[in-house]
Amino acid sequence: MPQQHELNNLPRGLPADVLADVGATFKALSDPTRAQLVYLLTEQEYSVNELSEFVAVSASAVSHHLAKLRAIRLVRTRREANQIFYSFDDSHVAALFPEALYHLDHVRKNLPDHSI
Questions:
Q1: Apex CA 21: angle with CA 17 and CA 26, to 5°?
Q2: Side-chain-side CA neighbours of residue 99 (13 Å)
Q3: pLDDT for residue 1 is more than 90
Q4: C-alpha distances in Å from residue 109, one per residue of 32, 98, 105, 113, 116
Q5: What is the per-residue pLDDT for 24?
Q6: 56: burial class by Cβ within 10 Å (0-12, 13-18, 19+)?
Q7: What element of type H or E holds 42?
Q8: How far apart are CA 54 and CA 75, in angstroms?
């Protein structure tokens, strides 16, 4: 039998601490550079320099963004010799990206929701 998550059993409305954490996650993803980094990292792991090339910002700026994402456990690191590789650390949030893209496709094409 699948384990039920404790958030499935909450009364109406979310507790303040949960709301704060949800807000922090969406705030982190609201930055276009961080959103692009997260999207790239859902596909495979990359070094800071590789990510810097993809998002066209300095390696220092990428490191700063990754530190914020790591602080809320969206990315993790793996060291190989003197290089650090980043990968995505939360499949739940990774699943938000295809859904957000489907949503944007519907909005841009003025399509109804699937449930309608």
A1: 145
A2: 6
A3: no
A4: 22, 16, 6, 11, 16
A5: 92
A6: exposed
A7: none
A8: 17
The burial class, CB within 10 Å (0-12 / 13-18 / 19+), for 88 is buried
Q: Which one-letter amino acid corresponds to residue 78?
A: R
What is the spatial order of strands in the sheet that 75-80 belongs to?
A: 46-47, 83-88, 75-80
How far apart, in whole angstroms, are the C-alpha atoms of residue 95 and residue 54? 21
| d(C-alpha 110, C-alpha 116), whole Å | 13
Q: Which residue has the tokens 């979310």?
A: 14
* Per-residue pLDDT tens digits for 11-41: 688 899 999 999 999 999 999 999 999 999 9
pTM for this model (two decimals) = 0.80
Amino acid at 61: A
